[in-house]
Known about the structure:
Elements: H1 2-36, E1 41-45, E2 56-62, E3 67-74, E4 77-79, E5 82-84, E6 87-91, E7 96-104, E8 109-116, E9 125-126, E10 132-134, E11 137-143, E12 149-158, E13 163-164, E14 168-170, E15 175-179, E16 185-192, E17 197-203
Amino acid sequence: MNENKEKMSILEIILRFLLGFLLPFVLINGIILYLFIQVPNISIIGEDSDEYEVSKIKFRVESILPVTSVKTFHEDTEIAYTKLNDIYTIDAEAVGSYQINASIINGAKSQIIATLEAKDIAPPAIDFDNAVITNNMLIFTIFDNESEINYDSIYGLDDDGNRLSPIYIDKSSGTIQFQVNPGKRITVHVEDVEGNSIETAFVANE
């Protein structure tokens, strides 16, 4: 009996040590470590996170710990932001790099950079000076300094509204060829990859 009681006493001591000291110690230190390694998460709000139209940048700073500091910069110059609920907003008045820094109460910091590019609103251009019509062939060159040409978008319309496809396209030089009828007009349509378009008419001599 005494031996059994002694064994139970030792077991109780071990259980009390585990439940009363070791487990709380591990749990508390685990929580402290978890909070210590937390970092703020900065996320840009928008349909496209790679390219932005010049206007506004909206972002969130998420953390289970209190956020102690948020700073925003444009090309190394600190700029102001506004905050509504959990959404921060920067009025982006110029293209370039916008840097967002955030800190939380444990001293951890995060940084994210959003690069704003001016939206391409210019249509492709046609080199009219070197456009020629010879042997019932319209030959001209197209170019776009802002975006790539969408060569699948190129077509022509004759006087009767019939849609005509180019018979030759050289993407390396931008050279386009259409077959035309003498004395007839062809209206050529060209777009870039941003959807900007140009239409112009050519008239073949009889």
